[in-house]
Amino acid sequence: MTDEDDSSVEEIISIREIAPRPVPRAKHPFITHVREGYEQSHTDSMRRQPGARSLPSSPHTGVNHISPRDNVVKLGQFPPIISLNVGGMVYQTRLSTLLKYSDSMLAAMFSGRHKVDQDKDGHYFLDTNGAVFGHILEYLRYGTVPPSDLSTAVYRDAEYYGLHSMVEKLQLRPEIASIIVKESHRSQFPGYQDAKHDVIRAAVANASINRIGEVLICAFRTEFKAKVQNFNPLHGCIVESAHVSIGPWETQADEEVFMKCLENDLMEDGFNVKPHEGKRKCKYYYGQTCQKFVYKLQIIFD
């Protein structure tokens, strides 16, 4: 073989299929569905049969999966010094810095198994908050976490990039710990966020006369089931007047806990909420009393 022939031979390396490593999910509001899409694309690309077409790029990371034809990947795809365009802000760092945590998304992106989109100047493009990413780089370089007033924004992106050790450090901050506890509290009630949004919509719709949005809420931990045969289910129950309904749920938290959780959330969002009234019980009786009830909540629009 001549030198010319030798130089034309591209070095390749065979790889074996690797089962995707599960990524833990934190129970808080910043559940990052965009990262899940990236992970699913990565899993699918590793499982596809040779000869399949490449998957499309992720809209947030700009990652194009290299086709696994013949189970080979090209070596030396990235230079040792990486220029990044993160949401319009340009950073330079070593490739080894981005690969520091092997189980992170950044390490996967710049592992050589994927092609990352570049802007017109040749910078590798990441479609996330550029100012926040600076703190991500500082952690990769020095292991430092941002000031408390930036913890929430950085925590979201640390989750997104799969930097689990950074996430764990930030979870010890009071502002992050509070978010996690509140989200865990809400998670007791399936459909909580939808119910909250429905309450706001109903309040807005009902506030046109005197700017007080009255909302009737049917919240029930357990489903009421009549024990007598002649109990009429179509008796004009009070719950038929409810604007919003939520339940049942399996935890021990009762309906009062749900209502207080809802009120606190609305007030934290900036709404002027009048404390809810006690249960309005159904008055129907035939062999037994109907156990259903509603709560009245009022949101005042100043």
Question: Secondary-structure map with pairings?
Answer:
Layout: H1 3-7, E1 12-14, H2 33-47, E2 63-65, E3 72-74, E4 81-86, E5 89-94, H3 95-98, H4 105-109, E6 114-116, E7 124-126, H5 130-142, H6 151-160, H7 164-170, H8 174-186, H9 192-206, E8 212-219, E9 244-246, H10 255-268, E10 272-274, E11 280-281, E12 293-300
Any descriptors?
302 residues; alpha+beta; 5-stranded mixed β-sheet; 3-stranded mixed β-sheet; 10 helices
Q: What's this entry about, in short?
A:
The protein has helices at 3-7, 33-47, 95-98, 105-109, 130-142, 151-160, 164-170, 174-186, 192-206, 255-268, and strands at 12-14, 63-65, 72-74, 81-86, 89-94, 114-116, 124-126, 212-219, 244-246, 272-274, 280-281, 293-300. The protein is an alpha+beta fold and 302 residues long.
**Helices and strands, in N-to-C order?**
HEHEEEEHHEEHHHHHEEHEEE
* Broad structural category: alpha+beta
Into which percent range does the helicity of residues fall? 25-40%
Low-confidence stretches: 1-59, 65-76
Mean pLDDT: 81
Beta-strand level of the residues, as a percent range? 15-25%
- Note the main sheet: 5 strands, mixed
Total helical segments: 10
Q: How many strands in all?
A: 12
Alpha-carbon Rg, integer: 27 Å
Task: Please give the alpha-carbon distance between the first and last residues.
Answer: 85 Å
Shape: elongated
Please give a structural write-up:
The strands form 4 sheets. Strands 8, 9, 10, 11 and 12 form a 5-stranded mixed beta sheet that branches. The radius of gyration is 27 Å and the shape is elongated. Helix 5 (130-142) packs across helix 6 (151-160). It is built from 10 helices and 12 strands. The protein starts with a helix and ends with a strand. The chain has 302 residues and is of the alpha+beta class. 33% of the residues lie in helices and 17% in strands. A hairpin with a 2-residue loop joins strand 4 (81-86) and strand 5.
